[in-house]
Design brief:
The protein is of the alpha+beta class. Helices cover about 25% and strands about 20% of the residues. The N and C termini lie far apart (about 60 Å).
Length: about 90
């Protein structure tokens, strides 16, 4: 099974890779919500044997606002700052 890569569109940010997910992956992500933070990484030692040596997508459901904010930080137009918790006296 392959995951087709969509050709770049003139409105895409340079360097973005768009991969079409399988039907099963689309259903699984869709059930968790419309927006996700996705990080691609190599499968680690806890992955099943068939996944070793392959890339894995770690997908966290988030709000559209959080997705927009994360995109702005990732592209360097904004910065992230740790939220300070107030000290309890």
């Amino acid at each position: 099974m392959t995951s087709p890569v969509l050709p770049p569109h003139p409105l895409d940010r340079p360097g973005v890779i768009k991969i079409v997910l399988s039907e099963a992956a689309t259903v699984a992500l869709g059930a968790a919500g419309p927006h996700h933070l996705v990080v691609a990484t190599m499968a680690d030692a806890t992955a099943p044997e068939h996944a070793r040596g392959r890339m894995v997508l770690l997908c966290l459901p988030i709000s559209k606002q959080a997705a927009d904010d994360a995109y702005r930080v990732a592209t360097g137009t904004h910065r992230a700052a740790k939220i300070r918790t107030p000290k309890v006296s």
